[in-house]
Fold these 2 entries.
Entry 1:
Amino acid sequence: MKIPTSLVEKSLKKTGYIPKPISESLITNSPTFQTPSKWIAKPKRIASDQRIQTYSEITNNIYALQLLSPPRLTLLSRITVPRSFLIPMHFVRNNIDDSVNFKYFVVPRLEKPKSSLETTEYYPLDYSTLEISGDGGTTGASKLNKIQSLNIRELDGSVGWLNKTARVIHNLKLDQLRNSFEEMSDYEYKSTPDSSDDQVVGISFDEDCKYVFEHVSTDDKSGTIFTYFNLFTLLQKEPELYSQIKEYFQLLDKTHCNLPVTDKTSSFISNLYTYSLFMERYLRDNTNRD
């Protein structure tokens, strides 16, 4: 097939490329020409029994699940981290408190955005950061602190902070932990895992230890990291939930136990880890101060 001279000149002028003549042999030898059904037919669906439904190494690893969440940018530090370590927030018009001059408030986002125009701002998963986000007070609303004000200058400083925000998010995280524990209560706890390959976490009720959670390396050369959660410190202000969990494990004279990570327990362990991250700095600072 001969290409018109005018098209060649235009192509050469714009891109510097001269198209090559297309011969009949080039067309007939093309895989698309020889086997058109291969290229126009819909791809075959993989049979369900041939699909990889899940990766047990990931689904049974609470840390991997947290790290594999989509990356998001934090409002305060402009650092990108996995979404599991952040709290979604958004701006809403002030229909809450007429006594203040704020046009907007920063509040937790409890539902997914209804349109692409709605923005979500992410805050660190940290109770202490939320507690000092305003200029002070435990009730009502206040100005954002200077660091946050610098990050949202586009709203002309007319954004307020509800001083109960930290407590509200705390209650949400605590409810998630409580609900996941109630779901796990049907699981028959065993002091030893069914398999030596099962991942386990430590649940401690030691009143002499002040840590919230800690990662401990095993004595062998495998490099395995073992995690202990100290519920005595973590739930010191939640005595009812603390007693329920302690009664569930039936420790008698022991102060700690091992909980295997299974389909029945993974939700509770994941929420326990998230709640520990959320409260760790606040509890550590207040415990040391006491």
Entry 2:
Amino acid sequence: MTGCMTLPPAAPIIYLTLVGTGEPLLRMEKRLFCAAGGLGIRLEVEIRKDVEALGNSLQQSLAVLHDGKLIFNGLHRIEEVESWLKNLK
């Protein structure tokens, strides 16, 4: 998925794993890319649809992982995503 704006090649990159399926996965993916684009951050997102392979705690919902740690569980507002990305930057 392309971001909401074009970023320069030198923009910092954050690697995330997005776990889930269906419309919630697509909505969260768009929110992640739009929030990152607005902050001048590039994302590399691995999408995992095999939720059960990642453990029982993630089986029932959408999840965003960074360095193997759970960041978001469920669909979050873009403002929350932007706030988290600002703190990470």
